[in-house]
Amino acid sequence: MDAIDRTAKTSRKPTSSDKKLDALKAKQQKRKFRGTSTPDPSLNVSLEDFTSFTQHLQASRRIFALLGAGLSVASGLATFRGSDRLWRGHEPQDLSDAQVFFEDPVKVWWFFSQRMMGAQEAEPNAAHFALAKLASAKEGFFAVNQNIDGLCERVAFPQSHIAQVHGTLFSIKCSKYQAEKDKCDYESEVTYPVNEHLTLPQDIDISDAKVALPEVARSDLPHCPKCNNLLRPNVVFFGEATPLSLTERIYQFTLGGPIDLMLVIGTSAVVLPAAMYIPIARNAGARVAFFNMEESDEEPGRLQDGDWFFKGDASETVADMLKGVIGNVGR
Ligand SMILES: [Zn+2]
């Protein structure tokens, strides 16, 4: 299933987050063999909430899910909101920007190369597997995925049931994809490294501004085989719109009939357009289940009567709350 070559993985000392990850994996391994009719006691979910959610999930025909960075935290990927979000002192959104790419494509390519390497080395967690299983089991399931880490693709998530609204790290496209003149539609799937010049140095963390960024000539960056302009990551940069074809698929689902259940997973859902999806689902009749570290006191994420809130790491809560319908998942 996992076609990505991992032979280039570098060895490094285990950090405290590695140890936390190992402990989490051990817990998940144990959970695999538990029953599916009661919640895991360590999650502090009441039997009443577990049962009412399971019954509603079982009966739900149309389920809408919004997936955010919290889904991949247990896979070791940063949320880009915490104190570790800065890259060489820059906010991530300042590097994921078309104008910055135009001015300094070398720097932007290094930033994305490091994110690609991290995502390629990461493993999908139990929540990715559980959601893929639910999507395969329920014909009327549709997810909007804000993550670009490729982890949902690696668990064989049925692609007709998911919209990758921010693109993916594992694809590149021509920088002239939107040009008014000589527009170019080239795009291609990629793995890290995009080319040999963008291989990260071993044992040096280039996200640290004190480390010199390896020199790469602009001419050594990936260029389009069709028009010879620069290629760029196939992600939606800040300020760019989600491709229209994806927006249309989302509306086809949300306008396609009543929605029974909405799952909000690992996202505060405060940023547009993600913020719209909760009210849209409520208007279509959905009850909402939140899987987050913290309860939101801001709209649209504020709890309403009939909602569920499952507090904790999504890799634990999602797999445990779905097990009454899809059974236990591995990992
Ligand atoms: Zn091109």
Automatic annotation (TrEMBL):
<dbReference type="InterPro" id="IPR050134">
    <property type="entry name" value="NAD-dep_sirtuin_deacylases"/>
</dbReference>
<protein>
    <submittedName>
        <fullName>DHS-like NAD/FAD-binding domain-containing protein</fullName>
    </submittedName>
</protein>
<dbReference type="GO" id="GO:0070403">
    <property type="term" value="F:NAD+ binding"/>
</dbReference>
<feature type="region of interest" description="Disordered">
    <location>
        <begin position="1"/>
        <end position="40"/>
    </location>
</feature>
<dbReference type="InterPro" id="IPR029035">
    <property type="entry name" value="DHS-like_NAD/FAD-binding_dom"/>
</dbReference>
<dbReference type="GO" id="GO:0017136">
    <property type="term" value="F:histone deacetylase activity, NAD-dependent"/>
</dbReference>
<dbReference type="GO" id="GO:0005634">
    <property type="term" value="C:nucleus"/>
</dbReference>
<feature type="domain" description="Deacetylase sirtuin-type">
    <location>
        <begin position="40"/>
        <end position="331"/>
    </location>
</feature>
<keyword id="KW-0520">NAD</keyword>
<comment type="similarity">
    <text>Belongs to the sirtuin family. Class I subfamily.</text>
</comment>
<dbReference type="InterPro" id="IPR026590">
    <property type="entry name" value="Ssirtuin_cat_dom"/>
</dbReference>
<keyword id="KW-0808">Transferase</keyword>
<dbReference type="InterPro" id="IPR003000">
    <property type="entry name" value="Sirtuin"/>
</dbReference>
<dbReference type="Pfam" id="PF02146">
    <property type="entry name" value="SIR2"/>
</dbReference>
<feature type="compositionally biased region" description="Basic and acidic residues">
    <location>
        <begin position="15"/>
        <end position="25"/>
    </location>
</feature>
<dbReference type="InterPro" id="IPR026591">
    <property type="entry name" value="Sirtuin_cat_small_dom_sf"/>
</dbReference>
